Amino acid sequence: MTDLETRLQRLRALNAAIGSQDRELAEERADLAPKALASPKLAVQRDLNAGPEPTEHRALLAEISKESIILRRERPILAIRENKAELVFKDQADSEIWKQRLTDAAPALDIAIRAAGRIELSGAEFDWVGTGWLVRNDIIVTNRHVAEEFSEHNGSGFVFKQGTDGAMKAGVDFLEEIDNPDELVFRLLKPLYIEEEPGPDVAFFQVELLSGDAKLADPIPLAAKPGTSHGVAVIGYPAFDSRIPDVDLMEDLYGRVYNKKRLAPGAITAVKDGKLLHNCTTLGGNSGSCVLDLSSGEAFGLHFSGRFMATNYAVPADTIRSLLAKVLKPHAANRTTRRDTRVEVSHGPQDTSSTVQDHTIALATASVTIPVTVSISVGQPVAHQPSQPIPRRGPDITQTADLDGEEAAVADYRDRKGYRATFLHADDSDDMDDDDEANEASVALPEVTGEAAKDVLSFQYEGKAETALRYQHFSVVMSESRRMCFFSAVNIDGSLAKKTKRPSWRWDPRIPRAQQIMNECYGDPPRFSRGHMTRREDPAWGEPDIATRGNADSMHVTNATPQMQSFNSPVWLELEDYALGHARQDRMRISVFTGPYFTDKDPELYGVRIPLRFWKIIAFIHDDTGKLCATGYEMGQEADLLPEEEFVFGRFASSHVDGVIQTRISTIQARTLIDFGQLVAVDPLAGDNEARFDRSPRRIADLTDIRFVR
What we know:
Oligomer: single chain
CATH superfamily of the domain at 397-705: Extracellular Endonuclease, subunit A
Helix content: 10-25%
Low-confidence stretches: 38-53, 331-395, 641-658
Strand content: 25-35%
Radius of gyration: 27 Å
CATH topology of the domain at 397-705: Extracellular Endonuclease, Chain A
Mean pLDDT: 78
Largest sheet: 8 strands, antiparallel
């Protein structure tokens, strides 16, 4: 199935579900004038003339346009201005039914809109992380995964995390509207409660009552028994979401306006397994949004997760009521943590008012601490092994004095095919076209996008403009400004691995030497070592001469970045080997993408700006599921920096220093502006929640902590 066919199928399925659940909308759709569907204003068209059958493509686009208009009509996203939903329906494709429903609900919406705000941070990596709303006079509720971006349990109670300069600070802006420069920020005083996994995705914070002369809005009442409904709306702050498979549709629905307060009506379709299922349109940033019942004005749920054009999930209001009662009630019932630690909720004596006086949440046994490490076990402690032993790797970095560097002739690279998108196909061969989409195992070379795309080094090779340096079994895309690679992408066949001798570092003659770093920052301490992005052993496979060529190609300085000698941990070094142990045992193939995070805060040493953190993505066909999977990882070298350099590097506060974490590919994509295509969707950590920057990192203390499947 082609990409267009998949998009059309997804749209039709969602629209059919909406129509089957809402008779009024279905009848309105049937009466919709054909010309309202024939003149789409949606930008779903792409340049598909290069396809084999452009007429068929145009027909598919026409159907996608029609289904997109239906979706926009029946699941609109409305602006909020001056604390009111902008119920302006001018387009012929807008729904009169939703216009009437929302007009009738205006009094309830006015209260709820004022009570919902954007959670903003200072001293943190991100300036805002999600949505929260008032459930009491001075308590807001949001999601656990939002709260954990800036709060934690320190063993005796809930506190704000340490940031770039002391404890992080947080507030809620109850405005942050489209075309409105005003703000209405109330400080979050402290975290009151964060429910542990696998419990409901809920957290409570105490918020100040006054912000200057401004008072908090009235709280949103919580429904006692929420159920299915054709008339609900989500109030929150949708952000551009890199996980969305259909960016064109997302851009059309949201008008390319993100991070502002929006209203998205829809329906609660089911109450199942302690969750509300709803189909209001949401994005990352909607985490913590209120799901409001339009008829009663009560909150039916707390949105926490969703899949675009599929379904969304919310914590039911009665669950929120129950948890809130525990926070407010003296000597609340204890609960058990993963380490059987008893948690008790207490506050000032006989406080029965709706205002929080001094809530504290403490461990009943102070001598017990709660670790922050999350272990994810894959099967049994000893995973199935590769069909042949894979030797343990040593640190893949070199520490040498200045080098002259070798350089081959440009013509020597004519036979280098580089990274192959079809490598994981069951029938992959050298004759296979990399553009082939015969099955879902194709993994295209990532693409640098957005502002970062302007920094991709372009070069002329045999009369053509190129952006990827192709080597034996791997490719590199370079940053012109940083003179390092954005990423290196390699195909690895573990069944054909060969042991080869280490050659010398070399220049790539296809690009100017001025765009490469041979020495400058490299050398004996305190200078840096040359750290491979694609490991030296990884492309060393195949026939002996081919393996030798792959090994030698890995020694191009285009494949190196500055790293401290102690940077590579055993876990980081062995990620590829461990993944090979889970790949299809008849082929043992994986594709690996590695690169640095480039940021404005990267310090300059020896004339080179030094990346502080690195990422890696591994893709393969899983031996158990037979399906494509991909996992993302990060590691930093902040803690390895020498003390005498502290005045240059300043203070760095990171909860992941000196450790490898498994993180979402969508997070890597958002931070690097590198598009990893379908790998975002096959990530086992994908789709769990919708914080604005949904990292949900998992510290990897041991390789068995890695999660390969959902």
